[in-house]
């Protein structure tokens, strides 16, 4: 099958960018950009120009560089780095590169101290060691590509000759986005995901029957919770097999006791607008009990007389062809849309240097092109195999334990993955196994999942462990349901971010330091950007028993922000804050000028069709723009269709004049679509426009304007005047403080000193802030008070610039009365 062995690449280097020791020389340097250099050394004098798992494209425009070459030394100089080499086998004494004030000396290792990601979170209780990415606090990072697998000119796997060194030095000195963009230039872009992947996935390791599974899907529908992907874990196939065949971990034959009519079952899933993926542990190959054993054996001329197993061998092209074109093609014809590759057997194969996971990911992704009629885009679902794995989304991060520690690590793990270009992790939302049943922990995990690359509920085989929202207590049930619905409402935004990730090399989730050089940006690992304007700070610890809220320490960059879930709170930036939210909310902050489109159909559907009604979340206070991107009207199967072929609707906000313009829509069908505008954190608009169906409502700190149907082919776009120079509402400290204190579960008499200190005392603010810290009340309460008191510098009596944050330990109990490293007093 040509598609399985053909992929875009251009691995050679422009000869004008190459510096070598001449014929028979042992070193080669390729100056790819003025900040990126490839360094190679080989005993045999040969160098590698084939595609590696990391490097697909090495032909760059030649940058300006200078070479100083003498008998015993070589220097390569660009605007950003200065390489010095003694022309001997690479060593720390002989090869160095100076970048700004840092000097790298060769040591044969990858280096990127901001972290990358890891192959799996299997069994993780909390933190795991991360492989390095290509970003660093130093002025350089290094990616050692010496041991990676190769592909030959026919697209089949190949290996390196021993004794050769092959590495890349990224000399970007804190310009993280530029480093990642050049990483993608070498390794290839993130592919476009099908729209359906951005909604909710259901997964559970459980022995479902077909009828039980379909009833579960219908229960979600009755609840009004949309789903897009139905994951069927390993019990879809025969598991209880005769001992002579080994374990039942690997299997390709339907368990007819559970699924008597597989085709009918899959057809019913499709009728419900669900895509189906099956779990596959391929390690044990194809054994004699399998339905397709003889058919696969025939394709391989394998002797079946003694029921010898057909061993899994990723290095045998004939086996891989039979694996895909006989075994899996048969199941795909029954209705399987894509595969969950659950390889857990290490990185060794018959050929040294060939990792089976790489082979499986690469060829599964390319083979999935044959299913584009249902998939829309190539797709696989598997574990991370190393640098370059971003080309095979979606990633399965493995089996985490159900602990607060496990939840606390996932935001950081997800964000740092972008440091190696890996933008589409799918976690076991809610945790996989072990741990404890906790409504609170599950809710917080689902909230993180809503603002993660992929939201896939999952749990292990356990009578007590499952993630159906209705199996939790009433409040938790409602909250989980609300966030699953919100996830589907976010799909218009997420699909646009999907296109941005592929075409602009901007992953959906980015560490804060990608966008801010401030030292503080490196101190909030669980906080991240979700798209270009939203900052998410998930709550990953239990709620305080006093405030009934969870807390998280965050750093806000310069500017003014409003919380989308708590629009009564507006924050001045350029400082640390402690954010507190009850179980219904997660801190998601939008800077002034933020525009977010949501699907606002009253009842959402499985499959995430394009919305016929959209609500624009608008944060006033600064100019804003957003271009809504949707699939081309005519499907284009090419890996990356021209960006101009997508349906695009620009949305612009002019702060000074108060004009919002929607459209015109480009490349669309020109149909009518209903639009609404929600001003988050603003309730004082003097709406000037009048259109058919126009109405204004105000609630929960927001103003919503229903515009009615707007024709998408309006050549000038649809314009509405909302009022000039609108601003976010000023925080009402007394009201917010009263509401918070009223809910606190504490001695009534202890509330009065807090209230009086903030609202009635005549002492200077600085003095009162210190007095707050000396009160004998819960540290979590002090921080919750401080958050409100110091949030908005425009508010009367505010403490902005004088804040002190208490040290909170454990479940909100009183900690040591010393400030954290973000202690601020002015």
From TrEMBL:
**Record-listed E.C. numbers:** 3.2.1.20
Q: Residue limits of the Glycoside hydrolase family 31 TIM barrel domain?
A: 191-497
Keywords in alphabetical order, please.
Answer: Glycosidase, Hydrolase
InterPro entries in UniProt: GH, Glyco_hydro_31_C, Glyco_hydro_31_TIM, Glyco_hydro_b
What GO molecular functions are on record for this protein? alpha-1,4-glucosidase activity
Q: Where is the signal peptide?
A: none
Family from the record:
Belongs to the glycosyl hydrolase 31 family.
Task: Specify the protein name.
Answer: alpha-glucosidase
Specify the taxonomic lineage.
Answer: Eukaryota, Fungi, Dikarya, Ascomycota, Pezizomycotina
């Amino acid at each position: 099958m040509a598609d399985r062995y053909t992929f875009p690449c251009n691995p050679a280097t422009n000869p004008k960018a190459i510096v070598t020791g001449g014929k028979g020389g042992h070193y080669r340097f390729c100056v790819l950009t003025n900040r990126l250099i490839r360094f190679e050394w080989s005993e045999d004098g040969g160098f590698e120009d084939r595609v590696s798992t990391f490097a697909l494209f090495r032909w760059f425009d030649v940058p300006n560089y200078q070479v100083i070459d003498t008998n015993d030394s070589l220097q390569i100089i660009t605007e950003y780095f200065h390489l010095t080499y003694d022309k001997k086998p690479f060593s720390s004494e002989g090869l160095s590169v100076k970048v700004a004030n840092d000097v790298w000396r060769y040591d044969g290792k990858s280096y990127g101290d901001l972290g990358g990601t890891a192959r799996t979170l299997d069994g993780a209780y909390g933190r795991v060691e991360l492989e390095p990415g290509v970003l660093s606090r130093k002025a350089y990072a290094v990616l050692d590509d010496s041991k990676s697998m190769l592909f030959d000119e026919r697209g089949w796997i190949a290996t390196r000759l021993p004794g050769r060194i092959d590495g890349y030095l990224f000399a970007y000195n804190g310009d993280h986005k530029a480093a990642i963009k050049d990483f993608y230039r070498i390794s290839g872009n993130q592919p476009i995901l099908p729209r359906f992947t951005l909604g909710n996935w259901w997964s559970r390791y459980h022995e479902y029957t077909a009828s039980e599974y379909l009833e579960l899907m219908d229960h979600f529908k009755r609840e009004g919770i949309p789903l897009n992907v139905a994951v069927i874990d390993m019990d879809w196939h025969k598991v209880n097999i005769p001992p002579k065949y080994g374990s039942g971990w690997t299997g390709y034959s339907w368990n007819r006791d559970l699924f008597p009519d597989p085709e009918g079952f899959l057809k019913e899933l499709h009728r419900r607008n669900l895509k189906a993926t099956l779990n596959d542990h391929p390690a044990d190959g194809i054994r004699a009990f399998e339905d397709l054993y003889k058919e696969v054996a025939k394709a391989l001329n394998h002797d079946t007389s003694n029921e010898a197993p057909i061993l899994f061998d990723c290095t045998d092209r004939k086996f891989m062809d039979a694996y895909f074109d006989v075994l899996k093609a048969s199941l795909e014809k029954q209705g399987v849309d894509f595969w969950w590759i659950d390889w857990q057997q290490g990185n060794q194969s018959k050929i040294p240097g060939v990792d089976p996971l790489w082979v499986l990911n690469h060829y599964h992704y390319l083979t999935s092109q044959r299913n584009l009629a249902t998939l829309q885009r190539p797709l696989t679902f598997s574990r991370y195999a190393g640098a370059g794995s971003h080309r095979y989304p979606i990633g399965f991060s493995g089996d985490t334990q159900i602990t607060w520690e496990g939840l606390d690590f996932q935001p950081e793990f997800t964000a740092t993955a972008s440091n190696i270009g890996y933008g589409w992790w799918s976690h076991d939302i809610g945790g996989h196994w072990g741990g404890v049943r906790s409504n609170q922990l599950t809710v917080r995990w689902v909230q993180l999942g809503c603002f993660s690359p992929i939201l896939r509920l999952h749990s292990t085989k356990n009578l007590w462990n499952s993630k159906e929202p209705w199996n939790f207590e009433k409040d938790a049930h409602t909250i989980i349901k609300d966030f699953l619905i919100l996830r589907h409402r976010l799909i218009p935004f997420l699909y646009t971010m999907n296109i941005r990730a592929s075409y602009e090399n901007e992953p959906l989730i980015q560490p804060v330091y990608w966008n801010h050089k401030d030292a503080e940006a490196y101190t909030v690992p669980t906080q991240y950007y979700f798209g270009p304007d939203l900052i998410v700070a998930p709550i990953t610890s239990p709620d305080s028993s006093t405030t009934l809220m969870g807390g998280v320490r965050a750093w806000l960059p310069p500017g003014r922000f409003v919380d989308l879930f708590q629009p009564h709170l507006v924050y001045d930036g350029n400082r640390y804050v402690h954010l507190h939210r009850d179980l219904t909310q997660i801190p998601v902050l939008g800077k002034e000028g933020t525009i977010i489109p949501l699907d606002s159909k009253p009842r959402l559907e499985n499959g995430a069709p394009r919305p016929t009604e959209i609500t624009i979340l608008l944060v006033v206070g600064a100019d804003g723009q957003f271009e809504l991107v949707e699939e081309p009207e005519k499907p284009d199967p090419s890996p990356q269709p021209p960006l101009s072929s997508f349906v695009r609707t620009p949305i612009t906000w002019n702060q000074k004049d108060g004009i919002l313009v929607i459209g015109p829509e480009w490349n669309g069908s020109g149909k009518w679509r209903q639009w609404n505008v929600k001003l988050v954190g603003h309730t004082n608009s003097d709406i000037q426009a009048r259109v058919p169906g126009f109405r204004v409502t105000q609630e929960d700190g927001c103003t919503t304007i229903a515009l009615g149907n707007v024709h998408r082919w309006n050549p000038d776009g649809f314009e509405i005047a909302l009022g000039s120079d609108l601003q976010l509402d000023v925080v009402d400290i007394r009201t917010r403080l009263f509401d918070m204190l009223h809910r606190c579960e504490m001695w009534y008499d202890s509330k009065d000193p807090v209230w009086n200190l903030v609202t009635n005392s005549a002492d200077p603010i600085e003095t009162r802030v210190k007095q707050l810290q000396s009160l004998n009340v819960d540290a979590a309460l002090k921080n919750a008070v401080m958050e409100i008191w110091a949030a908005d510098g425009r508010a009367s009596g505010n403490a902005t610039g004088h804040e002190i944050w208490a040290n909170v330990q454990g479940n909100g109990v009183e900690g040591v009365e010393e400030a954290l490293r973000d202690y601020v007093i002015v």
